[in-house]
Design brief:
The chain is an alpha/beta fold. Helices cover 52% and strands 13% of the residues. The longest helix is centred in the middle third of the chain and has 28 residues. The chain starts with a strand and ends with a helix. The chain binds nicotinamide-adenine-dinucleotide (NAD) and prephenic acid. Keywords: Amino-acid biosynthesis, Aromatic amino acid biosynthesis, NAD, Oxidoreductase, Tyrosine biosynthesis.
Length: 294
């Protein structure tokens, strides 16, 4: 049982973990810290946290588990604010979408990685943000990746894994660079592509001349372009190289598609689309298996 869980950043992810931990009876008290006073008040009003606090050190002082769930480029400032009250008996973790930069930030702040800091990432979310979007089922049957380093204490990893499992997630471990490369492909590139497509069309569509005729396909492809802009700016700056490599790959692939269309090579286009459809089916089978396995 966690006596006091502190959530720094009570938004979609922090709020959802607080709700799930409470519902599963994993913690007695939740203290929320947030830079946005209105969001913090809302978290209290909704009963997501017992107490709200504007100051990171004060909120985390007596906690036995602290989750940092702020945009990734804000992690270093939060770790620096935690440093004076860092407690060797407590466990600290984060939910950031990128991991190498979080480990580097911790090394900069502490000189070396604290044994009781366990970087993590729930592979679950939504295009909505803030505590109003949070819900206790967000992590059910979803994956959480932990990226401990050689210095990380196994007992701390165990404690964080138990928290996420208690919220319904399946926990695995990965090397941080591998994590960032994989997520650049399956999460960061799709977001960049969706933002770019909608920006391109939106600039020429200020009078709604074409959006008026857009339907399900456009809606499905672009849902994630409604995601929080600051969160995605931070992810792109934190995971620059892997994302740039994937953008280059997509540029090449689009070039190939354009060449096939230009040359009227229907057979090759058909093959490419069939190959993509089969690959998506393999993804769906894996995704659904993961769902039903639990
Ligand atoms: N949204 C997703 O789908 C998703 C999924 C997995 C992981 N993540 C990661 O989780 C983290 C949180 O994302 P979210 O979707 O919950 O965002 P969110 O905007 O819903 O919540 C973030 C909260 O952090 C607060 N905050 C920002 N800077 C702060 C600071 N310095 N000190 C205290 N509070 C601060 C904000 O006011 C906000 O309430 C990000 O690192 C994101 O990359 C997001
Ligand atoms: O479902 C969504 O809307 C998401 O954006 C979730 C999503 C993703 O799947 O790309 C986004 C960022 C995360 O770090 C993890 C999950």
């Amino acid at each position: 049982m966690i006596e006091r869980l502190c959530i720094v950043g009570v938004g979609l992810i922090g709020g959802s973990l607080a709700r799930a931990a409470r519902r599963a009876g994993l913690c007695r008290r939740v203290v929320g810290v947030d830079a946005d006073a209105a969001n913090l008040q809302r978290a209290q009003a909704l009963g997501v946290v017992d107490r709200g606090c504007a100051d990171v050190a004060e909120g985390a002082k007596d906690a036995d588990v602290v989750l940092i769930a702020v945009p990734v480029q804000a992690t270093e400032a939060v770790l620096a604010a935690l440093k004076p009250v860092w407690n060797s008996r407590a466990v600290y973790t984060d939910a950031g979408s990128t991991k190498v930069n979080v480990l580097e930030a911790a090394e900069r702040v502490f000189g070396s990685l604290p044994a009781n800091f366990v970087p993590g990432h729930p592979i679950a979310g939504a295009e909505r943000s803030g505590v109003d979007a949070s819900h206790a089922d967000l992590f059910r049957h979803k994956r959480v990746i932990l990226t401990p380093a050689a210095e990380t204490a196994p007992a701390a990893v165990q404690r964080v894994a138990e928290l996420w499992r208690g919220a319904g997630a399946e926990v695995s471990e990965m090397e941080p660079l591998r994590h960032d490369q994989v997520l650049a492909a399956t999460s960061h590139l799709p977001h960049v592509a969706a933002f770019a497509l909608v920006d391109m069309l939106g600039r020429e569509d200020e009078t709604e001349a074409i959006f008026r005729y857009a339907a399900g396909g456009f809606r499905d492809f672009t849902r994630i372009a409604s995601s929080d802009a600051a969160m995605w700016r931070d992810i792109c700056l934190a995971n620059r190289e892997p994302i740039l490599q994937r953008i280059e790959g997509l540029r090449d692939e689009l070039g190939q598609v354009a060449a096939l269309i230009a040359s009227g090579d229907g057979d090759a286009l058909l093959q490419l689309f069939q190959r993509a459809k089969a690959a998506r089916q393999r993804f769906l089978d894996l995704y659904e298996n993961n769902h039903h396995a639990q």
